[in-house]
Each structure stands twice: as structure tokens, then as C-alpha cells.
Design goal:
The structure holds two protein chains of two kinds. Chain A has helices at residues 2-15, 22-34, 37-63, 72-75, 85-91, 96-131, 137-143, 146-149, 152-163, 174-177, 184-187, 190-215, 218-226, 231-260, 263-269, 277-286, 290-320, 340-366, 382-385, 402-435, 439-454, 457-468, 482-508, 511-518, 523-534, 536-551, 555-560, 568-577, 581-606. By secondary structure, chain A is an all-alpha fold. Chain A is globular. The N and C termini of chain A lie far apart (72 Å). By secondary structure, chain B is of the alpha+beta class. Chain B folds into two domains: 4-241, 3-Layer(aba) Sandwich (Rossmann fold); 248-375, OB fold (Dihydrolipoamide Acetyltransferase, E2P) (Beta Barrel). The chains are: A mainly alpha, B alpha+beta. The interface between A and B is large, with 34 and 42 residues.
């Protein structure tokens, strides 16, 4: 026996190692995978995001099909049993028109209107900015993007300040104050909502269409012209077809954004009972119709997912149009000639309408006692810094109100904490996705962190409410705490954070880290002396971008915040509800200033044009 | 550094994909300058990365001396940072946020060497590679050639037992490349390191290596000295990959289709009686001569009639394109050719210049030996 095994060993040594068995190969792979914390971190983050993103979504979908508390008697079933009652109620019952169908139609019509209007304005502006010699085109290139940096409902508040009529109580609008009562259709509902969303999302078109125009190879134009095509023929037969993907893509993105938009329809739709899906969802949650809310939130998610799948398809299609690189993509400009001044005038008008006028109105409203009376004695700084004012509550100027500072502190802690966390998590996800030897993990992490992008914020917040409102397992009820806001915000920001992390890690490549490995650096060492120092810049962006979008975010907070966890946005909305117009406007101005300055600082710090990272 | 041994090394990226490297046995001895040579995608870089530990195996094992550093069935994997090797990347992979000096110093700091010794060693390699004057610059401020030197210095500083180089010269222009080749040869002598060098450039391999391992499609084709590889190619792939212009191959497919292959077949049948199953024969361009008259053709050589269809000067050398019925032969000469395009000439090659391969493309060693002994008789 001994002899046999000796000789067997000798044979094995002579022939080199035997082919590994499946078990040996698996054990070896596991060892390699677990050698470094990458995979462990990957597994942990995957679990975390499953809990923070997938579980809430599943929870709200389940809510839609289970008997909710308070309905046991009516449905003669126990809480938690399967039921189609809510689905039936939202989609087919007599109240379905109010709950779902009319809001759906309103959402669609408002979105379509906004898309059309912003396409018309946006394409013209994009062309003027990127391909003509319009006056001040560089300045306009930045200025016309500003509306997107401000919260959308800034404009809604400005609109009510101007057009509010006697339908609603509180301080009258300026027009009402000078004796011109605006009709309801002008003051509230579909018309103003459409206009405001269009102005807010026009920067989308300017950026997407503009960048497509700039990348457009002018040799394609020249070839057509050499073959005898006239200007308009070139535009219609060459440029427009090639621009179609960019146009469709911006349409789809605007639609997805409109779907989740809450603040604007809330401020402008409520007085005339003009409901869109997001406000209908909010009403169901506010009246504790959890099952119904589940169905509506599910529908919003479904529409969102379908929309973005269409977008993904369009992007794929757009690749077909990618022409082989050439030197032709030069910055050629059309001469506007006599139209130069009118063109600049048009751009200036759009700027005034979408930035100048709203902000000026808001600002003036905060320093005027009576609306629309431009006499010196009507101006006051009381609403900002006054004391002992003659009001029911809020007896001081807004800057002296402890509530504002509490809300500001909340905002900074909640949004700050969430964005720092999501920035770091984003880089980690990027690292794991690029580096882990476990492919499945990489794919899953990439997908799951992208998922919130498909779900409008308001539906996502509803999902959080559904999961965390009651204690589940070891998790206490989180509703009303700061924790739920931070968690929801982190999850909501993950698509941007992880995308930033993945692209940063892809750009870095493996080589610098492998070189450090060869030089003898272990994992921790490589992270601290190579990866993080090199990725410093993108980490800053990964924190600042979520911070800015969190500061002006409303839809998540409006569902999840309670008065004690008020942030600036919900605080101003509360002031709107109480008709403290000046104070509400002042808070919104503060938010807009923070968002705008934050964007500028990020741009300066990273020396990038944030406009390009748009979509966040 | 003890001998590095790869045994049955295998790598595939995913279950269904073809092996990037299959069943590779390779021995790299101390002090050797080994080139892994092959076309792109042949598995040479994967092999290098497996030795470094940046790529784990799918089968087989790697030993350094008696120590197993990587073995699938044994469940052993020593990570790259514990293998004490140096690797210069094709992209150089300098750390953009560190100065040249800090780049060079990085590995020494990790090893917690005393400051004085670190400074001394950094100084020595920076001097040796002539980059001391850039010590405070950042990598982005250096040219490609300078970055390349820093990448080398960074690895030499830790005095690795083996230095792995992944196509380090491919991003340099021709002049710098030549300089760096000489530099590498000098460093090999000065630092007495074992070097494993990956390249697809046969001249680089020929001029630098003490041993060349030719790879194709993940398998080792031949390992030997540069002369071995050139003079006794183990198979048609090696014969055709090494040499420029490439070796002329006469394929004995269907008899009767080509005059010149029929002639070659008859010639070999006469010189190698009893040898069957010859698949093809190869003749290097520089071994072929040409003559205007039959009496100028050396006796006993393989020859035939042909037309000159091209005379291509390459500066100091000439390539002649010869056309026989349906074969094109290339010959090279450093003597200015005395023929015009369109001239009818006789080509000839001595028997020892014929490389005989079997039907599977493997060298028939016996045939080569017998042909060479024929040559000595004549």
C-alpha cells in the first residue's frame, strides 16, 4: 500500500497537478473571492440596498393586494389577507374616476403640454446657443439652465403671488390687488401647471439637444449642401432625423419627471381640485387609505418604469446614429444677420419669464405689506427680520423665527448625512461593481442601485411609509423620525451616487491599483493611499450633487416628514398652507439661493459643467 | 530568486469561453531574460498576470522554488502583494497623485525601511534610470519615455527577485524603443534580476531575450534560445510568426497543382528516401539565392524557374518577389540585385535551408538532421 501511494505521488509530481475536481475549483474560487474585503463589502451593500430599495417597493405592491387595517368588517376578511378590493376601487369603482382616471388624464395632459412647449422653446434656444452667432450666447448657455437649478414650485409660488384670485383666502395676488380678477383657469390648475413645468424642464431640452447639435458632424451637412440641398432641406432631411433620438430622449425624461412632480400641482391644483397622480397619491396617504395608496403608487411606478424602458430603447437606437468619429464636429456657426438682435431678445425673454420675473416677484412679495402697491411706505423688512408682528402665529420675521432655523438645521443634518452616506456608498458600489470577481454581485448591485431612478420620488416615499410606518421584526416604527428621511433620501439618491462611482472607477482603470498591489500594498492600504486620493474629486461631486437635489427635494419629505422633522421645503409648504405667503416665499428664496450657490460651488470645485451631469 | 514553475496552468474567463491559456508548462530560471512572444490574444499577458497573481488560475499550479503560490486543487492562492515580484504595466500605471519620488518610494515605505536606506535606494534607481531631475514632478508632466523609466524605477526600487514587463516598449517611438532595449539589457546585467517580458514584437524578443517562449491561442508552441526559435522552429506557426519577410512555405496539398511544390516533393523524396508524410516545407527568404543560368546554381540545391515580379528596396536590403506558376516566393539580399522586373531567373536553396513539417505542421527533426548532413557531404 505504502509503496503504491509513493509511486502514485511520484506520478502525480511528474505529470504536474491533477485536474481539479469541481469541489476543489469552487473552494479555490471562494478563497480568491473572499481574500479581499471587496466581495464582502459587495454582499453587505447588496443586502443593504435590497432592504432599502427592493423591500419597500415589494411592500407597497403587497399593500395594494392585502386587506388593510380598518377594512376587515367591510371585506369580512382578516387584516393581511389577499384582496382585489383596492385594485377594483381604484380602477373600476364609481370613485375610480376621482381617485385614478381623472388624475391620470390630468397628469398625461399636463405632461404632454409641458413637453410640447419645452420642445418648441428648447430646440430653438439650443440651436441659437450652440450653432449661431447670437449676442451673448455664452452667457445664455449658463443663464438659461438656471431654472433647472431652482425648485420647480418656486415658480408655482411666484405664480400664485401674481395671479391668486378670490377663490382662495389669504393675501390676494397682485392682479387681484390692482383690481383685475384673474379667471380661475389662469390662476390655478392645468394652464399654470403646464406653463411652469415647461419652463422648468426647458433646460433639459437645451442641454440634450444642444449637446447633440454640438457633436453633430458638420461634414454631413456639407455633403448635403455640395449635392445641392438648400438650408431648409438640410435641416429637415439631414439634421432633424439625426437629432430625433436626442429629442425623443428629452421628451421621455421630461415625462418621467412630470409624473413624479408634486409641489407644483399641489400649490396650483388644490384650489380648483385639479388632481394629478402624485397629489391623488398624497391625498390617499393623508387620509390613511393605505391599500388605495398602494395601487396608485404601484401604477405610478409602472408608468415610470415603462417610460424609462422606452428611453433605454431610444438610447440604444441612438447608437445606430453614432457616426464614425471625424474632425467634422467643429463648432460651426450660422450667421443670423439681421435676426441677431431679435434672437437675443427671444432668449432674454425666456430668461426673464423663467428666472427673472419669478424670483423678482417672490423677493418683492417678501418686502411688501400689501401686494402690488409700489409706494415707499409699503416696503418693509419685517417679514425677514421684524419683531412683535401683528399676526396670529409667526410673530417675528422669518430669519428670527426659531422654526426656520430648526428646519434649516434639520435640512442640513438630514440632507447632509444622507448625501455624505450616499456619496461614500456610491464610490463603494462603483468599486465593487468594477472589481469583484463575482459577476452576479456586480450586475445585481448595478441594477438595484439604479432601481429608484425608475420610481418617482413620491411613490418611493409612499413605499417607505408602507414598510417603516409600523415595527417590523427588529426594526422599530420609523415614521416621524429623522432616520426614515435619511434612509429614504439615501435610497433615492443612489442612482446618481452609484452611477458617479461606477464611472469614476471605470475611468480609473485597474492599473494604478494593481501596480500598488505588486508593490506590496494590501487592500486597506490601496484604498487609503491610491484609490481614495485619486477619486477625491468624484467623491466630492458624489456628495454635493445629492446634497443639492436633496435640499430642493419636496416629494420625499412631504410624505415622510412630520412637524418635528420639518425641513426647509416642507416648512415652506406648511407656511403656504397657513397662508403666510411672505414667509413661505422667503423660505423658498432661501432654498433657491442654497441650491443655486451649491451648484456653482460644485462646478467651480470640479471644474465640470454640471449641466452635463444633468438628470439628477 | 528561485525558479518559477508553471504546471498545467490554465485560465478561462467564464465557463463557456475558450481557454485564454491552456495547460501551460513553463519554467523560468534564475537570472533568465525570458520573452513571452506571440500575436495579440495568444495568452501571453494572461500568463504574466497569473505569475504576478493579478489573475487567478482555473486549473494547474504555480510554484516559486518549493513554495506553491497558486494551486487550484490545493486551494492555495498567494496574493500579488505577497509575491515580491515587480511588474511594469503597458500603460505604466503611475499614480497620478504622487510625485515621481513618492512613486518610486511607495514600495519601500510599505516595507517600513529606515528613512536613510529608503533615500539611498530611491536615489540609486533614480540615478540609474536618469530620472532624478524630475523627482518633484507629477507623472502627467513627464513624456512617455520618462514615465516608462519611472515605472521601471518604481519596481526596481524594491529589488524584486523577478521583474515582469508587459509590453513596456509598445507605447514608445522607434528611437526611444531602441534606447530602452539597450537600457533593459543593461539593467538585467546590473540588477541581476530575472526578467519576464511580454511582447508581440519578434525583434524585441530576438534582441533582448536569453530564452523565448512562443505562444499561440493559449498554448505554448516552443521554448528555446532566440537562435533555436529561428533556426529550428518547432512548427509552422513558429516558423511563420518569426522572421520578416515571413518564411516561404510550400504546402504539399494535392500533387500536380503546382509545379514548384511538385519539384520540392521530388527533391525531398530523393534526399530523404523512406520519409513519408511530409506536409510542407519552408525556406527563409535570406536562404534563397537566384541565378541567371543553370550552371550558376550550386549543385545539390533545390531550385526552379521563376519570374521576378517585384524588386523592393528597403534601404540597404532588397526584397525580391518571385512568381512561379501559382506560388509567390520572397527572397532577401543585401547585394544590389542585378535583375529587372520581369526577368526569368532560377531560384535555389541549399538543402540545409529547408525546414520540413509533417501534415500537422510539426517540425520533422529527423528530416532536418538528414538534410544538414547531406550538406556536409557536399
Amino acid at each position: 500500500m505504502a509503496l503504491l501511494s509513493e509511486s502514485a505521488k511520484a506520478v502525480a509530481a511528474a505529470n504536474g497537478p491533477a485536474a481539479p475536481t469541481a469541489w476543489q475549483a469552487w473552494r479555490y474560487r471562494l478563497k480568491v473571492a473572499l481574500r479581499e474585503p471587496t466581495t464582502l463589502i459587495g454582499v453587505l451593500t447588496a443586502l443593504l440596498f435590497t432592504y432599502l430599495i427592493v423591500v419597500p417597493i415589494i411592500s407597497i405592491v403587497l399593500d395594494a393586494a392585502r386587506v388593510q387595517f380598518g377594512h376587515e368588517r367591510r371585506l369580512s376578511k382578516d387584516v393581511g389577507e389577499f384582496t382585489l378590493y383596492y385594485l377594483d376601487r381604484v380602477l373600476f369603482s364609481p370613485v375610480s374616476a376621482d381617485l385614478f382616471w381623472r388624475p391620470l388624464l390630468n397628469t398625461l395632459s399636463v405632461a404632454m403640454g409641458a413637453i410640447l412647449l419645452s420642445l418648441v422653446i428648447g430646440t430653438v434656444l439650443a440651436w441659437l446657443i450652440s450653432r449661431t452667432d447670437m449676442f451673448g450666447r455664452r452667457w445664455f448657455a449658463t443663464a438659461l439652465i438656471v431654472p433647472y437649478m431652482l425648485p420647480a414650485w418656486t415658480f408655482a409660488l411666484a405664480w400664485t403671488t401674481l395671479f391668486k384670485n378670490r377663490t382662495v383666502g389669504g393675501q390676494p395676488g397682485w392682479l387681484e390687488a390692482v383690481g383685475l380678477t384673474p379667471p380661475d383657469w389662469l390662476a390655478y390648475g392645468r394652464f399654470p401647471i403646464t406653463i411652469i413645468l415647461a419652463l422648468h424642464y426647458t433646460p433639459f431640452v437645451i442641454l440634450l439637444f444642444g449637446s447633440a447639435l454640438r457633436r453633430f458632424d458638420s461634414q454631413l451637412e456639407d455633403s448635403a449642401r455640395i449635392l445641392g440641398a438648400r438650408h431648409h432641406q438640410v435641416a429637415l432631411q439631414i439634421i432633424l432625423p439625426l437629432m430625433r433620438p436626442a429629442l425623443l430622449s428629452s421628451m421621455v425624461l421630461i415625462f418621467a419627471k412630470c409624473l413624479g412632480e408634486f409641489g407644483v400641482p399641489y400649490v396650483l391644483g388644490l384650489p380648483v381640485k385639479f388632481e394629478v397622480l402624485s397629489t391623488s397619491l398624497f391625498r390617499s396617504i393623508a387620509s390613511r387609505q393605505t391599500g388605495v395608496a398602494g395601487v396608485i403608487a404601484g401604477s405610478i411606478m409602472l408608468i415610470g418604469i415603462i417610460t424609462l424602458l422606452i428611453d433605454a430603447r431610444l438610447v440604444r437606437e441612438a447608437r445606430r446614429f453614432v457616426t464614425i468619429g471625424s474632425k467634422g464636429s467643429m463648432d460651426r456657426q450660422s450667421r443670423l444677420g439681421r435676426m441677431r438682435l431679435p434672437a437675443a431678445g427671444f432668449a432674454a425673454t425666456v430668461f426673464l419669464m423663467s428666472v427673472g420675473l419669478p424670483l423678482l416677484t417672490l423677493f418683492l412679495s417678501t418686502i411688501m405689506k400689501l401686494p402690488a402697491r409700489f409706494t415707499l411706505d409699503n416696503f418693509t423688512l419685517d417679514y425677514w427680520i421684524g419683531r412683535d408682528l401683528d399676526t396670529v402665529a409667526l410673530k417675528t420675521g422669518i430669519l428670527l423665527s426659531p422654526d426656520l432655523w430648526a428646519a434649516a438645521k434639520n435640512t442640513l443634518t438630514i440632507v447632509g448625512l444622507a448625501s455624505v452616506t450616499s456619496g461614500i456608498l456610491g464610490l463603494l458600489v462603483g468599486y465593487v461593481v468594477i472589481r469583484t470577481p463575482v459577476r452576479l454581485l456586480s450586475v445585481y448591485l448595478r441594477q438595484v442601485t439604479f432601481l429608484p431612478y425608475l420610481v418617482p420620488g413620491i411613490a418611493f416615499a409612499a413605499a417607505y411609509l408602507s414598510l417603516f410606518a409600523v415595527p417590523r421584526g427588529p426594526m422599530p416604527a420609523l415614521y416621524g423620525t429623522v432616520v426614515i428621511l435619511v434612509l429614504a433620501l439615501i435610497a433615492d439618491q443612489m442612482p446618481y451616487a452609484s452611477r458617479a462611482g461606477i464611472s469614476a472607477m471605470t475611468q480609473l482603470g485597474k492599473d494604478p491599483e494593481e501596480a500598488a498591489q505588486i508593490a506590496g500594498a494590501g487592500w486597506l492600504r490601496r484604498m487609503t493611499s491610491i484609490v481614495i486620493p485619486i477619486q477625491k474629486g468624484s467623491l466630492v461631486t458624489g456628495v454635493l450633487l445629492p446634497f443639492i437635489s436633496g435640499i430642493k427635494g419636496l416629494s420625499l419629505f412631504v410624505i415622510l416628514a412630520v412637524p418635528s422633522t420639518d425641513v426647509l421645503t416642507t416648512y415652506s409648504l406648511r407656511l403656504v398652507d397657513y397662508h403666510y405667503t411672505q414667509a413661505a416665499n422667503a423660505v423658498v428664496l432661501i432654498i433657491a439661493a442654497i441650491a443655486y450657490l451649491g451648484t456653482l460651488i460644485t462646478q467651480k470645485l470640479t471644474r465640470t459643467n454640471l449641466a452635463e451631469g444633468l438628470g439628477s | 530568486m528561485p525558479t518559477i514553475n508553471l504546471r498545467g496552468a490554465q485560465k478561462n474567463y467564464g465557463v463557456n469561453s475558450a481557454n485564454a491559456v491552456s495547460d501551460l508548462d513553463l519554467e523560468i530560471r534564475d537570472g533568465e531574460f525570458m520573452c513571452l512572444l506571440g500575436p495579440s490574444g495568444c495568452g501571453k499577458t494572461t500568463t504574466l498576470r497569473m505569475i504576478a497573481g493579478l489573475e487567478n488560475l482555473s486549473g494547474g499550479e504555480i510554484r516559486v522554488g518549493d513554495r506553491v503560490v497558486d494551486c487550484v486543487s490545493g486551494g492555495v492562492f498567494v496574493p500579488p502583494e505577497k509575491r515580491e515580484m515587480g511588474l511594469v504595466f503597458q500603460s505604466y500605471a503611475l499614480w497620478p497623485h504622487l510625485t515621481i519620488e513618492r512613486n518610486t518610494d511607495f514600495g519601500l515605505r510599505l516595507r517600513k525601511l529606515p528613512k536613510a536606506e529608503r533615500e539611498e535606494r530611491v536615489e540609486r534607481v533614480m540615478q540609474a534610470l536618469d530620472i532624478a531631475k524630475y523627482r518633484d514632478r507629477y507623472p502627467s508632466q513627464l513624456s512617455g519615455g520618462q514615465q516608462q523609466r519611472v515605472a521601471l524605477a518604481r519596481m526596481l526600487a524594491i529589488n524584486p527577485g523577478v521583474l515582469l514587463l508587459d509590453e513596456p516598449l509598445s507605447n514608445l517611438d522607434a528611437r526611444l524603443r531602441l534606447e530602452m532595449r539597450a537600457e533593459l539589457k543593461r539593467l538585467h546585467k546590473e540588477f541581476k534580476t530575472t526578467i519576464v517580458f511580454v511582447t508581440h514584437d519578434q525583434w524585441e524578443a530576438m534582441t533582448l531575450a536569453t530564452t523565448i517562449a512562443v505562444m499561440n491561442e493559449g498554448t505554448l508552441q516552443q521554448i528555446g534560445t532566440p537562435n533555436d526559435i529561428y533556426d529550428r522552429p518547432a512548427n509552422r506557426f513558429v516558423a511563420e510568426f518569426v522572421g520578416s519577410p515571413p518564411i516561404n512555405i510550400l504546402d504539399f496539398g494535392d500533387p500536380g497543382t503546382s509545379d514548384v511544390t511538385d519539384k520540392a516533393e521530388a527533391y525531398l523524396a530523393a534526399h530523404l528516401p523512406g520519409l513519408r508524410s511530409i506536409g510542407s516545407v519552408g525556406i527563409r527568404p535570406e536562404a534563397i539565392g537566384y541565378a541567371a543560368r543553370t550552371e550558376d546554381v550550386p549543385e545539390g540545391s533545390f531550385s526552379g524557374e521563376t519570374t521576378v515580379t517585384g524588386v523592393l528596396p528597403t534601404g540597404g536590403n532588397w526584397i525580391l518577389e518571385l512568381r512561379t506558376d501559382n506560388h509567390t516566393l520572397f527572397l532577401t539580399t543585401h547585394v544590389p540585385p542585378r535583375v529587372e522586373q520581369g526577368a526569368r531567373v532560377l531560384f535555389f536553396a541549399p538543402p540545409e535551408a529547408l525546414h520540413v513539417f509533417d501534415a500537422d505542421g510539426r517540425r520533422i527533426a529527423e528530416a532536418d538532421d538528414r538534410l544538414r548532413s547531406t550538406a556536409t557531404y557536399n
